[in-house]
């Protein structure tokens, strides 16, 4: 079964992820299952016929063997072929080899003196092994299908404007700079810039968020989102291979290649364990009859026990279910907008004890916004209205914040003239007949306006009208809506230390830390200082505990790389974030960090359940087999039954609450 799984993985990674190949793969998968079911039904019919012949015709042993060989070879030819292939390629000790030896041994027992024929058991072991393969193939196909549907973000077509006509082409064939038309209900095929039209985008497949995102001319859009309302024209800014959707599909597909500690342990364990089991079975078959002194009489009994031992000890349940659990966990997380780049990061995430946050763009939005308006003249609305007009032509982020706070300034009919930017002070302009000065205290002093301050933390913008002080506006970087709840949830998960690092002034860092109830913060840092602090925190944490750094992935690359696990705010497809981090949050929400930890812990929990369940049942039946208390049916359950149950348990990792 393990070989079957590895081939399956190899096949998945080998083909291009085009729509046709995905469909054909799914088609082949369903055809394969149908073929297996047909084979099992025919084998059962032949087996019933063989049992009837055995009971109604007194055939000699060799003729009876020929009758049972027909269903045996029909159901077991693939397993025998895999066993021979394994021997040829130097991988003799695989589960196909164990099954082949056990069943061939059972077929041969009947020819020993004083031994009963075990033909029926031999065919049944092979039949149940194939039933196990069928269930495993079905479960694995289901989990891959679930991930494919949940990650159903690959666009099929792009409508490209060429020579005045619309051509339907594959997204791979669209060149950078070409104009694409996206109609309502269609997926955005490539990353680009909106040239025409307004709409709302459904980003659920990328971010796990159901709230649509409004877009208009000049906005950036990313591939994989679904256009909900209007027709939009988009200029492609990236080729398909470089687009967000392509990178995400690639990440999820190849995440299973980075094995977790549990997976590498299981692989190493199976490599050492299987030869030991084979030699132990040989010893069990030969030594007790030799010791008893009556070799010929007791050998069939001990050979039968040794064959049971082989069937029971097959490590299929472990080799299959553990990687499948991690595969499911990664798929379940990706559906929530959390991209975990490998199963090894699941181990690290589950042991997080310290989380270090960058402030700007991680705990805060990283964009200036008006926090408070304190007028000395007029009301808040009118003061904002005048300041927004003066800042109309400013390229400074503070100008953008004032314009965003008063979006009607472009349409209210006021005439702005004589705009003048004073370096290091601010801007002045005439709004109608009124001279408005917007700037810092230096500007107020220069025009003789008697200003006063407030006790807000942030950037204070003073406003004077016709030389007289009119009030001030507080501009600040807004804290994200879910930052406080994210820190609370981390504490409830047992994360003992949450630390904030920022390059901002001490009072700004202190203010954010106080609002978020963070016990520890470091302000006024350069990128190198952040690395030094993370180094210090890494030395202070427990040996079996891990440290996560959460940043926006662009200027935090050195720290993301240094932490045990780097978590980046993906900013709906920021390239640097996807490259630098081990975990990417596609919607920039800090509350996804505790969710990622919960998913990792649950995935590891399911993997452990499978390991202990499989080992427990196998040890119990092995002990019974050694003392002659186990039957072939028990052996079949201990191998195939346990594998099927472990695989279905592994599928639970896909579902994330």
Structural class of the helices, strands and pairings? alpha+beta
Low-confidence stretches: 1-25
Biggest sheet record = 7 strands, mixed
The helicity comes to: 40-55%
Total helix count?
A: 22
Shape: elongated
Tally of DSSP β-strands: 22
Total discrete domains: 4
Radius of gyration: 34 Å
Termini distance? 31 Å
Strand portion = 15-25%
Could you give the order of strands across the largest sheet? 10-22-21-20-11-18-19
Average pLDDT figure: 83
Task: Describe the protein in words.
The chain is α+β, with helices and mostly antiparallel strands. The protein has 4 domains: 282 residues, no CATH class; 88 residues, Distorted Sandwich (Calcium-transporting ATPase, cytoplasmic transduction domain A); 145 residues, HAD superfamily/HAD-like (Rossmann fold, 3-Layer(aba) Sandwich), CATH 3.40.50.1000; 111 residues, Calcium-transporting ATPase, cytoplasmic domain N, CATH 3.40.1110.10. 54% of the residues lie in helices and 18% in strands. Strands 10-22-21-20-11-18-19 form a 7-stranded mixed beta sheet, with helices on both faces. A 6-stranded antiparallel beta sheet has the order 2-1-3-9-4-7, with no helix packed on it. Strands 12-17-16-15-14-13 form a 6-stranded antiparallel beta sheet, sandwiched between helices. It is elongated, with a radius of gyration of 34 Å. The two termini are 31 Å apart.
């Amino acid at each position: 079964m393990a070989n079957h799984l590895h081939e399956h993985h190899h096949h998945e990674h080998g083909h291009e992820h085009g729509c046709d190949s995905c469909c054909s793969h799914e088609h082949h998968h369903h055809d394969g299952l149908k073929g297996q079911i047909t084979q099992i039904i025919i084998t059962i019919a032949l087996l019933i016929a063989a049992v009837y012949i055995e009971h109604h015709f007194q055939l000699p042993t060799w003729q009876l063997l020929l009758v049972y060989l027909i269903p045996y070879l029909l159901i077991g030819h693939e397993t025998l072929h895999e066993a021979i292939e394994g021997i040829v390629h130097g991988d003799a000790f695989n589960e196909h080899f164990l099954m082949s030896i056990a069943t061939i041994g059972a077929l041969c027992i009947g020819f020993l003196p004083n031994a009963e024929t075990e033909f029926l058991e031999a065919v049944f072991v092979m039949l149940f092994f194939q039933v196990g393969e069928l269930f495993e193939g079905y479960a694995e196909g289901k989990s891959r299908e679930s991930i494919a549907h949940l990650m159903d973000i690959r666009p099929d077509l792009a409508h490209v404007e060429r020579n005045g006509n619309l051509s339907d082409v594959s997204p791979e064939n669209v060149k950078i700079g070409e104009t694409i038309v996206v109609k309502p209900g269609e997926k955005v095929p490539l990353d680009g810039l909106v040239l025409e039209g307004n709409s709302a985008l459904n980003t659920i497949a990328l971010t796990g968020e159901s709230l649509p995102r409004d877009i208009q001319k000049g906005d950036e859009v990313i591939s994989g989102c679904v256009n909900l309302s209007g027709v939009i024209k988009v200029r492609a800014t990236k080729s398909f291979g470089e687009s967000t959707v392509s990178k995400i599909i690639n990440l999820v597909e190849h995440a299973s290649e980075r094995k977790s500690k549990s997976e590498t342990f299981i692989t190493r364990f199976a490599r050492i364990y299987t030869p030991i089991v084979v030699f132990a079975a040989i010893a069990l078959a030969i030594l007790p009859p030799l010791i008893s002194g009556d070799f010929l009489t007791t050998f069939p009994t001990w050979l039968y026990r040794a064959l049971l031992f082989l069937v029971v000890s097959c490590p299929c349940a472990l080799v299959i279910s553990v990687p499948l659990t991690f595969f499911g966990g990664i798929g379940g997380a990706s559906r929530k907008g959390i991209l975990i780049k490998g199963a090894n990061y699941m181990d690290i995430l589950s042991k997080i004890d310290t989380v270090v946050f960058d402030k700007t763009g991680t705990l805060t939005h990283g964009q200036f916004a008006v926090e408070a308006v304190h007028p000395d003249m007029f009301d808040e609305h009118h003061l904002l209205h005048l300041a927004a007009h003066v800042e109309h032509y400013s390229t400074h982020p503070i100008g953008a914040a004032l314009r965003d706070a008063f979006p009607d300034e472009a349409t209210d009919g006021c005439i702005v003239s004589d705009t003048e930017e004073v370096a290091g002070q601010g801007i002045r302009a005439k709004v109608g007949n009124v001279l408005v000065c917007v700037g810092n205290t230096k500007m107020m002093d220069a025009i003789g306006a008697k200003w006063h301050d407030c006790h807000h933390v942030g950037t204070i913008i003073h406003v004077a009208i016709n030389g007289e002080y009119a009030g001030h506006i507080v501009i600040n970087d807004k804290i994200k809506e879910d930052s406080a709840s994210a820190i609370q949830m981390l504490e409830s998960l047992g994360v003992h230390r949450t630390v904030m690092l920022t390059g901002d002034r001490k009072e700004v860092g202190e203010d954010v830390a106080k609002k978020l109830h963070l016990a520890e913060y470091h302000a006024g840092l350069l990128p190198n200082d952040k690395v030094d602090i993370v180094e210090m925190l890494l030395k202070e944490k427990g040996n079996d505990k891990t440290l996560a750094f959460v940043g926006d992935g662009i200027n935090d690359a050195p720290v993301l790389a240094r932490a045990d696990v780097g978590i980046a705010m993906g900013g709906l497809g920021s390239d640097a974030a996807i490259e630098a981090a081990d975990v990417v949050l596609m919607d920039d929400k800090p509350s996804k960090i505790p969710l990622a930890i919960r998913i990792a812990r649950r995935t590891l929990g399911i993997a452990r359940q499978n390991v202990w369940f499989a080992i427990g049942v196998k040890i119990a039946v092995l002990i019974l087999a050694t003392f002659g208390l186990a039957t072939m049916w028990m052996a079949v359950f201990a191998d195939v039954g346990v594998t099927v149950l472990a695989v279905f348990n592994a599928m639970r990792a896909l579902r994330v609450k």
